[in-house]
């Protein structure tokens, strides 16, 4: 078996012979599919996409190999996709961060134009926490102290220009308060700094909520449309008066110029997988919510996301 970065979903390959001949012959794809995953092996998204690929392969009648190719927030993975043959044998997971990175680095890449959108899948939950007891008044308490002590408070995120960073910057800009941004190399380092008292808030993916579960931190707010099932007491931004929902949406794209029949086949296979009991249960455990879009709707979403990202980072003065 190859290394982790080029692994085959073995369970899929073993399961395929049990599929009916008609199911195996129905696929217009010329052979096995490689799904590029722009994250390192071993994380939550890696586990979800591995299971999703296994379930989709059963419907597709072809093995799906997941190839981990981390780097540059997804841009590296997508760059290798753009020039690939549009036969459906090479596809990639597109994280929203790739759109932002391309804009920030002034790269000649447009997600809606330079790929074939196949399916929008889901979004990961985000939010902001404080050390337990630090702000008895919650988010309002933080804002009150920030107004009394301009620039004295700080918030961490899982990296410069991450969802956590830009969403907090947007909230603070709206409130007219200042706080120092402290980027970390991952959410875990930020949570450790928060609990040590080195920063006042930590914004990031819902995994930071494990500190809440442990009784060491409290949610200031979550950024989903509805409250999270695991933390029903955490208010949403909407409940606090902000017309804002922020997740980390992701979907699957292929090279430009893919035929409609191939796109439909892949879409249907991944939609079936997305709605399988196993995938739904795993996504719920990892605080991910289904956000299905078909090819046309996903293309429109990517175009609108690019426009909104450009507007946001321009407003924050981050455009090159």
From TrEMBL:
Family annotation (InterPro entries): BUG, Bug_dom1
UniProt record similarity statement: Belongs to the UPF0065 (bug) family.
Pfam families associated with the record: TctC (PF03401)
Record keyword Acyltransferase present: no
The protein, known as: Tripartite-type tricarboxylate transporter receptor subunit TctC
Organism: Neoroseomonas alkaliterrae
Keyword entries, A-Z: Receptor, Signal
CDD domains assigned: PBP2_Bug_TTT
